[in-house]
Amino acid sequence: MDFGSWERHTKGIGQKLLQKMGYVPGRGLGKNAQGIINPIEAKQRKGKGAVGAYGSERTTQSMQDFPVVDSEEEAEEEFQKELSQWRKDPSGSKKKPKYSYKTVEELKAKGRISKKLTAPQKELSQVKVIDMTGREQKVYYSYSQISHKHNVPDDGLPLQSQQLPQSGKETKAPGFALPELEHNLQLLIDLTEQEIIQNDRQLQYERDMVVNLFHELEKMTEVLDHEERVISNLSKVLEMVEECERRMQPDCSNPLTLDECARIFETLQDKYYEEYRMSDRVDLAVAIVYPLMKEYFKEWDPLKDCTYGTEIISKWKSLLENDQLLSHGGQDLSADAFHRLIWEVWMPFVRNIVTQWQPRNCDPMVDFLDSWVHIIPVWILDNILDQLIFPKLQKEVENWNPLTDTVPIHSWIHPWLPLMQARLEPLYSPIRSKLSSALQKWHPSDSSAKLILQPWKDVFTPGSWEAFMVKNIVPKLGMCLGELVINPHQQHMDAFYWVIDWEGMISVSSLVGLLEKHFFPKWLQVLCSWLSNSPNYEEITKWYLGWKSMFSDQVLAHPSVKDKFNEALDIMNRAVSSNVGAYMQPGARENIAYLTHTERRKDFQYEAMQERREAENMAQRGIGVAASSVPMNFKDLIETKAEEHNIVFMPVIGKRHEGKQLYTFGRIVIYIDRGVVFVQGEKTWVPTSLQSLIDMAK
């Protein structure tokens, strides 16, 4: 308990560290407290002899702490024990031999653990061992025999050379070992053990074989039952097929019909599906169904009764079509009974009727194919359209003359669009060529051309349609518009109506190009001439608004058209401003200013509405639009345009006109009143358009 007590007089922490590591005061160190508690004590030797001359020098305490046995004493005891084995017992009593027994169960367990069984005969023939450790050379046939050899005394004789005395005196046999006899006995024991192990393994094998044969018997019984069911089903299928063949004979009183044959095939498919699926449906259908199908369609006219047979063919499609072939997109007639049925039985009737069909009478043929498009295979439909229908249409288009034929070509071509679609593309080029030839002598006053061309607008590609219009229609319209005479007092509008009637047929850019080239120069020239002769501004206003109402909103929204009408407003405003001192109709200046204000406001509202629609469309398409990018009022619109064109737009501090804030737009001073921009002129404020304002600021 006082171990380490001296530590209290120091600053050490060794005792605390030992306690943290599990040390208990009063016990030894180590995991099992096997360490010594007391320090090693020295023992004084009795004399001056060497170490150990006076006995053990260990103290009592060290003997208790380390109780070990002296190695010399231990060796002496071992020697005496081995020596006593070579001597006879002094008491003369014989030691009883000790026997070890092995039960059969132990041998079986040993045999189950040992996977490889080695026979003694095989062991003896494995290797030859020569033993030269003794006086004589000895030969062994395995290493295991070395462990069984017995050393005999050198002066002893072999077993074969011993001679027993013949006298009746009792003679004590010498204590020789009998290695040969022991070897033979051990060999017999090993053979017996191996035989027991082999018999046990053979018994286990036979038992496993019995279990395996039992399972095989169960499996074969199941296979036998399945085969019996298959044989029974095949017999019933064969009876049904033979019954069909019997009823198909000419001399049969109850002939087989197509509906009855379909019910028989449905029975085969429902009750004997495996046999039906594994059977050769093509040969079965060829032998039974095809003759009935030919008889069924013998009097059929597809153009008169297009739905005849669709119901029965749909039923046979579900019975005969090869699903595996369909999944791979195959067209092998030898592997699909339904495809072969359509090709060999149904198609000859279709070929016959198409050869007699007139392409201009397209409705019956289109209705017929529409009724069968979901029944017949796709490749057969393609064959009909490509090999039968298209050549007839192509030949008819070649014979068509747009100047003499009274039936429009679109009436017998367009019904084929849902079925043929892109297959009709090769016909469009000769159609355009014939139409172009027919339009060479055409005049815009003839409205029949529009009726003929209008159905083709959505059929031709946009590029080919625009090219056709530019080549054949636009020059004629330009010529007609060039002949238009603009007379405010007696205006004839027929030529203008002929041109403007083609809006929607020709593109807006083409129409605007015609107006810029053939209409607006004459129109502005007439306006200038009219303004220079002391006009009635009220009539001019009506004339301006009347012409503007002749155009659609889409044309008016075009920048070029908008600029032309704004130019007319600017001309009128300049005319009013320049006649300040001269006599002028009362209220003319105010009327023109109001007209300008109203028209600019309409333009602004239309632009704002278009931008709003564009923003809504972009939002619907998922394109984000910043709130600040959409102008909220006219001032914001001007500010946005100024930013786009790098023009300074800012208010003039402390200056107003009629209560309106003045702004600088570049080098120009402006103010905004009810959505109209007014620019400071020489003597008055002139309303102007936003585009004109941008052009002046640049």
TrEMBL record:
> What InterPro entries would the database entry show?
G_patch_dom, GCFC_dom, TFP11/STIP/Ntr1
Q: Which GO terms describe its molecular function?
A: nucleic acid binding
The GO annotation for biological process reads: spliceosomal complex disassembly
Q: Which Pfam families match?
A: G-patch, GCFC
- Domain G-patch, which positions? 10-56
Q: Which portions of the chain have biased composition (kind: Basic and acidic residues)?
A: 78-92
Region annotated Disordered sits at: 44-97
A Gene Ontology cellular-component term: U2-type post-mRNA release spliceosomal complex
Q: Per the similarity annotation, which family is this?
A: Belongs to the TFP11/STIP family.
Name of the protein in its database record: Tuftelin interacting protein 11
Q: Which organism is it from?
A: Macaca nemestrina (Pig-tailed macaque)
